[in-house]
Batch of 4 targets.
Target 1
Amino acid sequence: MEPTTEKRSQTQEVEALEHHQPKDKVSIAEGDLDVGASIVQAQEDTHYTEEEKSKVLRKIDWHIIPLAAWACGLQFVDKSGLGAAATYGLRDDLGLVGQEYSWCVSIFYFGYLGGSFVSGRALQYFHAGKVIGWAYFFWGCTLLGCVGAHNYATLLALRFLLGLFESALVPGLLLITTMWYRQQEQSLRFGLWTVTNGIMPVPFLIIYWGLGHVKSGPLVAWRLIFLLLGLLSCLTGILLYFLMPDSPVTVKWLNEREKAIAIRRLVDDQLGVKNVHFKWNQLKESLLDYRFWMMVLQMFFSQAAGNVTTNFLGIIIKGFGYTALKAQLYTAPNFAVQAVTQLIVSTPPTLLPRFRNMKQPLVAIASCIAVIGIVILYVTPAEPQYQGRRLASVIIISCSGANYTVIMAVIGTNTAGFTRKQISTSTAFFLYCVVNIITPQTFLGTESPRYHTGLAFVLAFVSIYISLSFSTWLMMRLVNSRRDRKALTNPAYATGDANLDEMSALRLAKQAFQVFGVENVNDTVRTGSRRGPQQRAKPFLLLIGRLQRAYCQGLV
């Protein structure tokens, strides 16, 4: 068949499915198509075996997960380096008083917020791996600048630049993950590359403990920490620039058939690969969708506890009466608890079918444990005999670190369309910055190291997050159940409102023609079978209803 004839045939099939908009002719050859569509169409043999799919998935894992895990873990170590430096006397050496240390924490997120607009556009127009690599390299250069900081103003400026350059990393990794993996695969992958947030700080804390024994030389312990982190970050940026794969379309370690398999996996999931055009209709859809707001507000209320377990952790533990060296070592269990919690809440929804819809309840339960820790820390007296109890309470607060991973997974896996992904992630990270600007200001310098006001603020926000998480989960279960019932009894509902992208519409139409013998998927379909059209089409319509749910951001 000639290419023109084939495209015309495909167009007719899509029109047969999208009967609810007869005046809007859809053509595979025109409009805002995803980049990968042409590669899929070029394959004559579109039958892919499970062995081929598994081989491609293994290749993807080996090329993405190790790099993403190292980059994410080192970034978290870098970001928490300020807390380690404060334990070793940074505040005294730079003469920080009052809220100046808190402002050094908050200013990071002003830079993060400003950089998110630039990085968001850069990630849409340039290869994500290259953007991340450049940003990481300059992040490392800024850390090296912290070695020479001698006053509050210099440290404040450097912290702003750190936030500016870090703003590209997590959104970029999130984008790369959603561009390579199907919905049911993403939760585990998010967990794999974010679990290093809890694993990697542990060996670095041991290194910090060793650096704390350096009593002579041109650099004190906290400056050596920044020197080490800066050099490692510069090297990591170079590796990311050359090794991080951008999308299934551009990589060289997949042949054309393997690229088609990788892209078809995403097409079957109704998740776009990449489109460089900003679609204003998707912006309107997002802003008017209550599910969008429920997801991003979870990011806002959940992240207040992170300040307790990062920038103020060493100060709080040292305030229990421990030396600076012991305080560094005693922060390690916090990160270990965070890593274990992330695995617990990320793995069952991926590997166990009965837990597939339980991501949000699991992480909400983990946050309930963190609330217990906050309450114990708040009410326990400061006397030496309660030292162990207070240390244990700080450790279990780290259970709240798992919510970050789950919220990212929920946003990434339940948002279809490249523009909607960008809107959702950008809004979530905007609110992430806002809450991390506000929270350090509640940790008053006059209350150090008890920080009663800060702990009360964190307790309130985490409690709101728990309520919001459970409410969202229950509401979406109700919505999804109602949608499935309608899809079984109303063909027009199953196909008329989904507004599927062109490749997915073509796929669903072909399934109707080939599997069920249906010539037109609507309430007046014709079929040669003795069974009624609605009876034969019921399983197919249920499938479409579920795919529609994913496209329309239903939480699964």
Target 2
Amino acid sequence: MGEYCGAAPEEDPAMALVTPLPTTTTTTTTAAAAAIKQPHYYGCFDRCSTKQVFDNLHGNISLDPLAREFVDTEEFQRLRDLKQLGLTYLVYPGAVHTRFEHSLGVYWLAGEAMNNLRLYQGEELGIDRVDMQTVKLAGLLHDIGHGPFSHLFEHEFLPRVVPGSTWTHENMSALLLDSIVDKHQIDIEADHLKIVMVIHVFIQLLWHLSIAIRLTHLLLSLRRMALRTSYLMF
């Protein structure tokens, strides 16, 4: 075997009759290269890249790649330590629901609502996956600005410590969203982020409106009860 060391192999005469194939080079266009480098598309629902989270109430919740980027930040993970019901757990040991669980649940409910809306009016309203993901993100991030013990911190603690404070968790949520996107370099378009914030504000308005409607119904019921009581008494 030593005689072959450093020696060039002899050419095969049969190979001289074979026409060599033309050498091809693979050229990648700039657009294709950009598409390859792009981490994910907004509105992508690839099952291989989703993450399953089990919830006691809603079962398995699938987090799409963009939602995972927000959930995996320390700003969102802090919601695990925020009690949904404030100090209620000190009286009722079972009331240990957190803002983290609540936010995941709202994310799932927003997805279910959009699925039904898309099923019955999707073509009429032009609902696409981007719209669905935008609404789901608004649900996921709607409480990210809450302080310790949730509403107790906002409505009871701050007014006593800082009289005249106008701090709200809604405003804090908007500030945190901008900070999270910049700090963690989350790939989301500015227009979509603005829509998420607008939906978040709209959700809060609807929540306050629903309370007003419930109070109106309660007042009407009390008036009817008062009229019936007065009729029976007199």
Target 3
Amino acid sequence: MAVPKMSQLRPGVMVNVVLKAHQQSGKLTTGQISEILTRGDHPRGIKVRLSSGEIGRVQSLSLSSEHIATAQTPPYVQTSFPSEYENAPNHSGGRRRGRSPSQGDYRQDPTPLESRSLADQIKTSPSSRATHPSSSTAVKDTTQAAMEKEFPKLDTALIAAILADHEDINNARGILGSLS
């Protein structure tokens, strides 16, 4: 038996649902929909909250649903989702509740994508910029090259890490000498 489609359901409709606690037994509970919790059709049934507060998946429409639905639909219940949810991609892994405004959307950023670079995304602390000015980069590169020639058996990444940790070159040379 096929479960009802989203187009058949709206707040106020009487339905038969399987509550979470009764999934194993399949026991049906009849009630009136107060809120639709699933955004689209679902093979096991659309999840709804009944007016009694219980939550379950709709298995079928109750016989008198159309009569009650037209007479008792509460005016304050939202029957459609806001437009921000309509075009949201359907992800099969995990839950997706919709994009909240706090997450931000790069497509709404006022800066055009073409004029941004990766450097705009990297945040460095003011202290690291002060201790590593760009003029000393060339000096560090030549020091690195000299240490690599002096200690050819050591890995270049190890040499770079020790040079970064020790500003005194003689101290770094002593540590590298003890490692080789």
Target 4
Amino acid sequence: YEVPLDRDVRDVVVTRLFMSKVYGGSPQETFPRVAQNFLRVHHMDDFMYLNLDMNPHAPQVPGAPGLFFDADESIDQFSKIRRVFSRIGSSQWEYMGQYEIKPVASLTMEEWNEQRSTVRLVWASKLSTTGWGVPCRGVMHLYEQLGRKPTKREVKEALQSGNQFKNVSREQIAEGFLKGWVTMAVWTMKCVGYDVDFQRELVTEYVNWTPPDEPKRLATPQRGRKRKREEHRALDEDDLIYHPRGTKTRPI
């Protein structure tokens, strides 16, 4: 999609903190919920933020196509066009355009293994610790318990039990992807528009925006504290920046 905007305006980037404070929503979520007080001002609830650590084939140039990965095939966020931002550098988020997102076949084991090791590590880490990783952990738990692929009924009953399956480790999930026990769902991303007025507004707002002061923290003794949590619990938006090359069977 050809963006009708000069590059010096098109390529201005912002931070997630700015977007959260000015347009609303969590500064961490892919699909942040925007509070009513923000919606009454700008009427936009279609934001989608893609981190290249987990979505290496996300658009990196405004108007370009891309792929979206998610471990949950039943994700229902794509009934409407999405206002997509990609993190193209450390704390640098760029508006890519308005995207139509459609499901395609999940990655094969071979395609998954073609992904960079950092991508596979981040996914295994996040799925082993987050609330949205419970379905994946549940499937892995059942595979280990049953010695076979669980039925949809067995998975449903396991998830309804309230078990968080915290016994499933990052290493087990990584192995599950290698064996094909769990797979990565894929969606195509096609740019169908670009909100020129929105990007111009972003530029103006960002230039005039003053970040809030960070709250002062009192120093506290650290003795007796457990060794800091594993690295994967501390991964954030500024970790593991790299440039993707696509896959052999799904070129960008």
